[in-house]
Amino acid sequence: MKNLFKKYFQSVITPNEFDQLTDFINQKKNEPAIHRFMDDEWQRQSQETFSEKQNPLLLQKIKHTILNEELSRSLQRAKYYSLGLKIAAVLMVGLVIANVWLYRGQEPGDEKQLVQTVSVPNGAKTEFELPDGSTVWLNAGTTISYAANFEKNRTVELRGEAFFDVVKSKNTFSVETKSGSVAVLGTAFNVQAYEEGEFTTTLERGRVEILNKKGTKLGILEPGDQVQLVDDQFVKDQVDTRIYTSWKDGKLIFVRETFPVAMRRLERWFNVDIQYSSDDFEGPWFSGTFENETISEAMDIICKTASVTYSYNSKKRIIKISALKK
């Protein structure tokens, strides 16, 4: 296994070897062996060593570096991870060096300055476990960040959409966005907060507290509740949570969606650019469910249920939609 780590850093690891390395790292029982290898590697790259307390933080960074490569791997397969992995390996070395300087002369309490970031591109989704044991699903076009000492500081910064299944703890779990935040102790809920300025939280079980961007408490959600923040206004409804959480199970559900909202969701889901004239499409527009369809199959279905036609440039991944003349 030590040889696989070396291959990883040298950018000559094959896909099968990469799978073996990922499986090994994801097993908690292997962490002592990983730490031993890390000590050898750090000493090779620097005369300074890392304490036992610092090693787990760096291990988390390695895990999430490899997680991001797993996402890239699903989009692009090759015999050798030449350019992409070479860049990742260079970044990893830079990361290690940055941590050497960050740790030097600092007290243990300063470890909270280390931040983990996980990003998912359009056209992809992923599921992984946070350091406290909570599970998170990231939808397409989503980025989350959190402190390396997450078990003490359970705060996640979110841009995009994510579903959280939070383990109970005495420490509050918080999801912060540009428009508002959610605070919980143990629960399961969905947060949608893409850069379009939206903030929607849907509660599957447990209880959550909603706060605006200034930290003012706005209200409590019970299971089945959904809240939207519009200009700091708290709008709450009872909904079928499956409609808003099924994306993590591979289903894209529309219920009387307006055209712009539906098109943004399709763009992220299929990683395409959809072009149209906004004057042609107003009001509630489309209801339906997509699960295993390609973008072409999805657009064919839309054309059958609405008065539209489209063209698709598969090389540029551009779709142009036109309303049929009445």
Automatic annotation (TrEMBL):
<dbReference type="Pfam" id="PF16344">
    <property type="entry name" value="FecR_C"/>
</dbReference>
<feature type="domain" description="FecR protein">
    <location>
        <begin position="117"/>
        <end position="209"/>
    </location>
</feature>
<dbReference type="InterPro" id="IPR012373">
    <property type="entry name" value="Ferrdict_sens_TM"/>
</dbReference>
<keyword id="KW-0472">Membrane</keyword>
<feature type="transmembrane region" description="Helical">
    <location>
        <begin position="83"/>
        <end position="103"/>
    </location>
</feature>
<keyword id="KW-1133">Transmembrane helix</keyword>
<feature type="domain" description="Protein FecR C-terminal">
    <location>
        <begin position="251"/>
        <end position="319"/>
    </location>
</feature>
<protein>
    <submittedName>
        <fullName>FecR family protein</fullName>
    </submittedName>
</protein>
<dbReference type="GO" id="GO:0016989">
    <property type="term" value="F:sigma factor antagonist activity"/>
</dbReference>
<dbReference type="Pfam" id="PF04773">
    <property type="entry name" value="FecR"/>
</dbReference>
<dbReference type="InterPro" id="IPR032508">
    <property type="entry name" value="FecR_C"/>
</dbReference>
<dbReference type="InterPro" id="IPR006860">
    <property type="entry name" value="FecR"/>
</dbReference>
<keyword id="KW-0812">Transmembrane</keyword>
